[in-house]
Amino acid sequence: MDKVAIFVDWQNLYGCLSVTLRKDRSLVFDCNNMQHLTYFFHSFLLPNERLFRIFLYTALPMTADEVESFCINSRRYIGTSELGLFQKYWFTPEVNGNSNSSPKAKHEYTYEMARGFQENLMKSDYFSLRLGQQRCQNLESNGRPNLVQKQVDMLIGLDISHVSFHRQVDAIIVFSKDTDMVPVLNVARTSGLHTIVATIKESGFPDIKLQQYSDFRRILPLKMIDAEGQRDSWDHETIKRVTLDFR
Q1: Has residue 29 been placed in a domain?
Q2: Mind giving me the DSSP string for 110-136?
Q3: Burial of 233 (C-beta count, 10 Å sphere; 0-12/13-18/19+)
Q4: What is the average per-residue pLDDT within 9-37?
Q5: Residue 236: inside a domain
Q6: Kind and range of the H or E element at 9?
Q7: Is residue 83 one of the residues assigned to a domain?
Q8: How many domains does the chain have?
Q9: C-beta separation of 216 from 196 below 8 A
Q10: pLDDT of 100 strictly over 70
Q11: I need a surface site. Which of 42, 78, 190, 209 has the fewest CB within 10 A?
């Protein structure tokens, strides 16, 4: 039986899942539900494969106070006029349907949701949480802070290299559409591991460069996973996958 490690660029995958869920409101799959997530990742395994670990990479958002502190104190990057735009944007309520929250209030809510998700992840079987950092890169023209993740790609690269050099697994499955993954996929292949790039069908095929440096593609419709999950009460041990499912 082959031992397989799964590597997940969560910001990348979460974006694909969120777009699909917004388009199809009939789906009940919940990105924040650990049982649903466990079922989702096991859906990409074949019966002859045994899961080693799910490495999930993300970053805890900056707190609202940290964002404000950066914008107020980073005079080298943000001028007085830009600071005024930020303050107007940050504290002005956005009228959207029944919501009347400011971007600051929404950011505080996002922070608490992310923290809760990450705490649940750390307590869940199979998952290994790897945290990069979120940083404010600059301000957009309307004063909105441009928040980006840092260190995530490096952490993924280090972990894949580690399991490859020490032959801890026979294969890796990577959930990412970032072509920055190409060099580390090549490292895994030259170390003798099978490399698999995975995604949901609704988000389209991985970039051709990723396909070039992977041995296999595994693509499943989220709609199918959702239907099977409901049928199986999200019990991943009931999954019976065959190779043809991925075509």
Answers
A1: yes
A2: HHHHHHHHHHHHHTSTTEEEEEEEEEE
A3: exposed
A4: 96
A5: yes
A6: strand 2-9
A7: no
A8: 1
A9: yes
A10: no
A11: 190
Closest CA to 215 of 240, 190, 179: 190
State yes or no: pLDDT of 190 exceeds 70: yes
pLDDT digits (tens, 9 = 90+) for 120-166: 999 999 999 999 999 988 888 888 999 999 999 999 999 999 999 99
Q: What is the CATH number of the domain that holds 10?
A: 3.40.50
Residues 148, 136: Cα–Cα separation, whole Å: 6
Confirm if 21 and 15 have CB atoms less than 8 A apart: no
Q: Which of 122, 4, 133 is nearest to 56 (CA)?
A: 122
Tokens linked to 77: 């990057």
Closest listed residue to residue 156, CA positions, set 191, 117, 129: 129
Nearby residues of 171 by Cβ (< 8 Å), 6 or more positions away: 2, 3, 4, 5, 49, 193, 194, 195, 196
Structural domain including 234 reads 2-60+150-246
- Residue 10's nearest CA partner among 42, 52, 56 is 56
Amino acid at 128: S
